[in-house]
Amino acid sequence: MAPAAKAAEPYVVEDCRGAVQLMSDGTVRRSAEPAFHVDLPDGADAAVEWKDVAYDAEHDLNARLYRPRHLGAANDARVPVVAYFHGGGFCIGSGRWPNFHAWCLRLAAELPAVVLSFDYRLAPEHRLPAAQEDGATAMAWVRDTAARDPWLADAADFSRVFVAGDSAGGNITHHMAVRFGKAGLGPQVRLRGHVLLMPAMAGEARTRAELECRPGAFLTSEMSDRYARLILPGGATRDYPVLNPAGPEAPGLEAVAMAPALVVAAEHDILRDRNEHYARRMREEWGKEMAFVEFAGEQHGFFEVDPWSERADELVRLIRNFVVEHMDSE
Question: Which residues carry out catalysis (predicted)?
């Protein structure tokens, strides 16, 4: 009797920067190590203190909370709050990764602001719209728990809340703006604005930026397609409205009241054209207060690849000016 054939070893079907791999048998392997490492300069965290908390025990989701040091207890000493969602193609990343941690340290220290950096469920284990659902859970936590946290009480002004995120987190930020409207968190927790940094978007029709993707780019069209295969629910195309909120299948947003928004794009990012189209449609067709700023010569995620660069300095100033301009808007 012939020996039974040995089962084939599972092999990698999809790989996202070595941080997550989808195997041929349907299992998922995740690395315990972050995909990106950045060093903190000496004293980079001297002006900020932080702690980790669980905000959704059911899904084992955490947030990292940052507050500037040396703020007084008077109301006029409190600073705005930034609810932040990290990038990673909806497949990888955590607010505890060094690059995202460094960026949130900068925002907390230099805006200054209380920064609440949220994790969310990742694909392919949890496909869209799981991340957006977790974003809504995070915002409800801001209203119900964070706003009553004694550790934040002498620093955070929850009447001045901004929602921000990069890449996948920028996409989540859009959906939070739509879901909660201009003041949907209630009278004590006011939404004043949204910051979308190179928000992750896709579509069936290729844009010029996607077709002309530079070799060696931080985010390539091939990577974007891989992410799409891993994050889209069964039967969905890249025009799925969650992923293409200004695309042909997306509902109109004329009736949605939204706080002002800032969209930041990079000249050499494959998402550049989609980000510009999104901002233009939101402003011109749907009547939203929407600013669009493009960073010449830069590529996707430049400020987290090198959080201490001069262009990252410029971006911090841009965000700070937006927050100052809108923190008392009605």
Answer: 167
Could you tell me the fold of the domain covering 12-327? Answer: Rossmann fold (3.40.50)
The residues spanned by each domain of the chain are 12-327
Dump pLDDT digits (tens) for 160-190. 999 999 999 999 999 999 999 987 798 889 9
pLDDT (tens digit per residue) in 194-213: 999 999 999 999 999 999 99
Question: Which of 36-40, 90-94, 163-167, 286-290 has the lowest average pLDDT?
Answer: 36-40
Mean per-residue pLDDT of the chain? 94
**Predicted local confidence at residue 5, as pLDDT:** 57
Amino acid at 118: F
